[in-house]
Structures are given as C-alpha cells and as structure tokens.
Amino acid sequence: MSSVNPLARDLVKQLTPYASARLSMSGGSVWLNANENALAPQYQLSGSYNRYPDCQPPALIQAYAAYAGVEPEQVLVSRGADEGIELLIRSFCEPQTQSQDQNQNGDSVLICPPTYGMYAISAESNQVRRTLIPLKTGPLATEFTLDTDAIFAAPTPKLVFICSPNNPTGDLIPRQQIIDVLEFYKDKALVVVDEAYIEFAPEATVLNLLNDYPNLVVLRTLSKAFALAGLRCGFTLAAPDIINALKKMIAPYPLAAPVADIATQALSSEGQARMQQSVNTINQLRDTFIQFANNQQGVLKVYPSNANYVLLQVKDAAACVAALVKEGILIRNQSSQLGLSQVVRVSIGNPEEMALVQDALARFFRQENSSGTTNTNNTANTNSQLFSAGAN
Q: Helices 80-92 and 240-247: crossing angle, nearest 10°?
C-alpha cells in the first residue's frame, strides 16, 4: 500500500481498506469476480444538467416505493447500499473515543461472518465496536444460519446486520430466525437485513414485516438484478422516523441527476420486465453451473445459492484463481473469510462466459487430479482478514 500523509488521523493510517473486486484484480476479458449482471440493458439520457439535483428525487422515490410496495416516506435513495450502511452507522452509533477502553460499554454493531465485508469496515472507519457472531452450519454443513443463542447472549448492539441472500455463501437466512431477532431487539436495536440479491429469490423478502417491526431496516440496490452496478444507486427502506434520521446525515446531493434519470427508467414497467427476464436467465445459468460443479472431482463442496454467484470449496483456491487468470477469466478467492477455507466464488455471467469458465475449470481440475497436487497452505481465518476481505 502507498504511504499515507503524516497529518492523517491514526485510524486512517491503520485502516485496511475494503478490497473491492476492481481494486483486487484487473485485466482479463471475462469478469466473474464481482457479482455483476453481465446481461446489461441500454438506457438513454435526456435533459440538461446545469442545475443541482434533488437530494431525494421525487420521481425515483415514488418509482421505488411502488416497486417495493412501501410508502415513499419509507424510502431513502443513496450512492449504492454501501452509503446506506455508512449512514446507519453514523446516525445510530456513537463512536468510541480514544479515552474509552474497547472492553467497556459503548455502541457496537453485530455482524455474522462470513458475510459482506463493508459492515465491519464501515464500523471500523467510524470507530464503532464490532461484535462477531459467526454463522452456524447445518448438520450436513450445507447451509449457514444465525446462531441466535449466541446473538441473544451478546452485549446489546445498536445495529444487527443480516445479509440474505448472504454474500458470499448464497444462503437464505431462515425467515423465522429474522423474526426472532426482530422480536428480541424490539426497542433495543435496529435489525438491518441486506437484500442486495433478493430479486434472485423474491419469496424470501422480509419487506412485508416492515410495518409490524419499526426496528426493521431493509437495504436494496440496483447493482445486481437490475444490472446497474456502475450507476451506484441503492435504497434504504425503513420506518419514516429512521429515514428522517438518515436524511439529516446524508450529503446534500448524493445522487447525480443522470443516475436518478436512469434509475427511474429501470424501475418502469418495461425496465422491471427486462430485469425479471435477466433474473430468470441467470438463475437457469446458475443451476446449470451448480450441476457442472457437482460433477467435478476437484470440487470438494458446492454451496447452495439463491443469488447470482456460486461458492465452491476446492483443493487449492489460490491455484484455481491463478489458473483462470492466465486464461483471462477472473473469479474471487474468498478463503480469507471467517469460517471459510479454500473457497472460490464464481459470479454468473452470460451464456458465453459461463461456457468459457466451465471449460477452464474442467481443464484445471483434470490437470490438478492428474498431478496429484494437494494444498498444504490453508489460509488462516482471522478477524483482521475478515475486515479486509472484499465480498461484492
């Protein structure tokens, strides 16, 4: 990492930034490392942009409220769901001061790894303590669920982050567990359910619990199913008093006018139809890829997925990623995530890209099996790795 200006805060000097897919890897011609949607629609811009945009563009707010089935006053739009995470932490968590002992009382967020890395990094950058309660694996180690006993025994946080479908594992957190957490933290903490990938499993949304649980917050994005990752447009859905608190902290012009224009087009009836067609295609390609992976001798485990990516446990994750890089194909090594070992995540691309990655993986596994190579350098899972691990 390059040197940091000596006038910067000590926290900045020590902080390990989020390792985004673009920052971690470059080059290649087949990008399957960032959970992007390769089935990109085209949009047209119109109008002039000499005036500042609305902080919360009414047409966009109304469009997303109608799409999600909530009231406009329950919607905040931001620069991706990442800004929503940041705003929640800044609005509801008092930062630790240097004079405070990290073991003493103070605001904290509760995170359930392995999961999206920005929860931890946003908390750390805002000097908010993090309580880690790892997900539990099922009896056959085929799914991840919340460890509710450990969650309820932990010191009370201000925010509980739950990702469902979870990134990078692809699991859906059981609905009843989310309800149990909401019930337990009534009047105590906000429960933030990150539904960035919910369009790939719409039946699992908890949005219909919003009016019953005023402590529920739902994060959404246009980056995944709507194929607008480059737009950076996300939504926070919550009770009006929570939305009003976030509005006090958000920048005066969080969304560029062209972003609002394109996002509103994407949420039109035609845009939603295109999105649904894209989701259907990706889900079919994902299921086909899972069948392929289950038939590869070099794959030790295929994690079930309800999103546009699949997690695979292999003999040597680093070697697998490196072999595909040589062929211009980028996938993601997720072995640094707490609770995961020797795993790679493959984002679902278009049909041509999936044919290329399957061919490359098949050849890699054949070569690996013929050489009898075994991995002896398991990646240690540490908290510091969790905080630096990217998972978008």
A: 90
pTM for the whole structure: 0.90
Give per-10-residue mean pLDDT for the chain (392 aa): 65 63 68 94 87 96 98 98 98 79 73 96 95 85 86 97 97 97 97 98 98 98 97 98 97 96 97 98 98 97 96 97 96 94 97 98 94 49 39 56
182, 207 Cβ separation under 8 angstroms: no
pLDDT of 96 = 85
d(CA 330, CA 324): 7
Q: What is the rounded distance in angstroms from the CA atom of residue 153 to the CA atom of residue 143?
A: 23
Q: Which residues of 88-118 are buried (b: 16+ CB within 10 A; e: fewer)?
A: bbbbbbebbeeeeeeeeebbbbbbbbbbbbb
Q: How far is CA 76 from CA 134, 137, 236, in A?
A: 30, 34, 5
C-alpha span between 208 and 282 (Å, rounded): 25
- The strand pairing partners of 193, in sequence order, are 162, 218
Contact between 45 and 200 under an 8 Å Cβ cutoff? The reply is: no
- Closest by CA position to 25, among listed 289, 390, 299: 390
Residue pair 286/308 in contact by the 8 Å Cβ criterion: yes
Other C-beta atoms closer than 10 Å to the C-beta of 290 total: 18
3-class SS string, the chain: CCCCCCCCCHHHHHCCCCCCHHHHCCCCCEECCCCCCCCCCCCCCCCCCCCCCCCCCHHHHHHHHHHHCCCHHHEEEECHHHHHHHHHHHHHCCCCCCCCCCCCCCCEEEECCCCCCHHHHHHHHCCCEEEECCCEECCCCCCEECCHHHHHHCCCCCEEEEECCCCCCCCCCCHHHHHHHHHHCCCCCEEEEECCCHHHCHHHCCHHHCCCCCCEEEEEECCCCCCCHHHCCEEEECCHHHHHHHHCCCCCCCCCHHHHHHHHHHCCHHHHHHHHHHHHHHHHHHHHHHHHHHCCCCEEEECCCCCCEEEEEECCHHHHHHHHHCCCEECEECCCCCCCCCEEEEECCCHHHHHHHHHHHHHHHHHHHHHCCCCCCCCCCCHHHHHHCCCC
Instruction: Fill in the amino acid letter for 261.
Output: D
Query: Closest Cα to residue 303, out of 141, 191, 184?
Result: 141
